[in-house]
Design brief:
about 325 residues, alpha/beta, D-Maltodextrin-Binding Protein, domain 2, 2 domains, 10-stranded mixed β-sheet, 11 helices, binds D-malate
């Protein structure tokens, strides 16, 4: 019995010592999409805000794109559970659970939940070439020409893919648009601006500057109500106002560690996240791009996990209604 107690004590002391020394090397935030997109932007803003609460640690962003974000998520699920490799991902954590029947990870079992980061509205966009300037013109044009047009997204299970699926399902297009998958909506945005693709639904963190610069056309926002607090985005109607009853899509982002990361380490990371989310510079940069930084109980690991579990159930129904699976 004494041996067991001694072993338990040793384990506890070494875990405590490990946590005391954490972080002992640079922390990597894995972004499962290409650089230059909204997920990448959230992670880079967050990396800067995490440095100080983590004692000046180096926090870097690594892009591991592909398969709608599931390549990067799998990488983190399989990483050493020491708190130095983390995942910054969005609604795809829940959407892919319903979209992929053969995922390499389980959203609720293979990660330690570190807290939510923000909620980001989406905008429905067209290339500058699209002959429409209002949502009504846009919808009429897509109804008449949908079969000849294409929609860009960041892979099956990405936010842009989910939004495209939901919008086409809501307007009941006779012929769906051709979808073109990119490694992120950063690169996809370049082709939308250039007119190589016709339509994209993307997060305001990636679209606000392009809309303001007149490089793309915006038609509506995906939130239940218009973004009346945002100086630029307030001018666009919500899809609900345009007759798409119940349409309400906001892209939330959370932070995750591999399952088995010591509790003392995940606590340190959650504590640092809570400080980062209150960093005035972080909040200002996020809100300027239409994002709302999380302030409710979803910043707690338990609240984060309960929220994602509910989203998995909700999105499974949406995906089944759209009748599309990734594999
Ligand atoms: C998405 O569509 O899921 C994201 O916008 C992809 C990205 O962050 O590039």
């Amino acid at each position: 019995m004494k041996k067991i107690v001694a072993l338990a004590l040793t384990a506890a002391v070494s875990a405590g010592a490990f946590a005391q020394d954490f972080p002992s090397k640079p922390i990597t935030l894995v972004v499962p999409f290409a650089a230059g997109g909204p997920t990448d932007l959230v992670a880079r803003h967050l990396a800067e805000a995490l440095r100080k609460p983590l004692g000046g640690a180096s926090v870097v962003v690594e892009n591991a794109a592909g398969a709608g974000g599931t390549i990067g998520a799998t990488k983190v699920a399989r990483a050493a559970p020491d708190g130095h490799t983390l995942l910054v991902w969005h609604i795809g954590m829940a959407a892919t659970a319903g979209l992929y029947r053969k995922l390499q990870f389980n959203a609720l079992e293979d990660f330690e939940y570190l807290g939510m980061i923000n909620d980001v509205p989406m905008t429905l966009l067209g290339s500058p070439k699209l002959p429409a300037n209002t949502y009504r013109d846009f919808e009429a044009y897509i109804r008449a020409n949908g079969g000849k047009l294409n929609l860009a997204h960041a892979g099956l299970g990405s936010a842009s893919h989910l939004c495209g699926l939901m919008w086409q399902s809501a307007v009941k297009l006779d012929k769906s648009m051709t979808t073109i998958a990119y490694r992120g909506t950063g690169p996809a945005m370049n082709d939308l601006i250039g007119g190589q693709v016709d339509v994209m639904c993307d997060q305001t963190t990636n679209t606000t500057a392009q809309i303001e610069g007149g490089r793309v056309k915006a038609f509506a926002v995906t939130t239940a109500k218009p973004l009346s607090n945002h100086k630029l985005l307030k001018d666009y109607p919500s899809l609900q106002e345009m007759g798409l009853k119940g349409f309400n899509l906001t892209i939330w982002h959370g932070m995750y560690a591999p399952k088995g990361t010591p509790a003392a380490v995940t606590k340190k990371l959650n504590d640092a996240l809570r400080v980062a989310l209150k960093d005035p510079e972080f909040v200002k940069r996020q809100e300027a791009l239409g994002a709302l930084v999380t302030t409710d109980n979803r910043v707690t690991p338990a609240g984060h996990k309960a929220f994602v579990a509910g989203e998995i159930t909700k999105l499974k129904a949406v995906i089944e209604a759209a009748g599309q699976f990734a594999d």
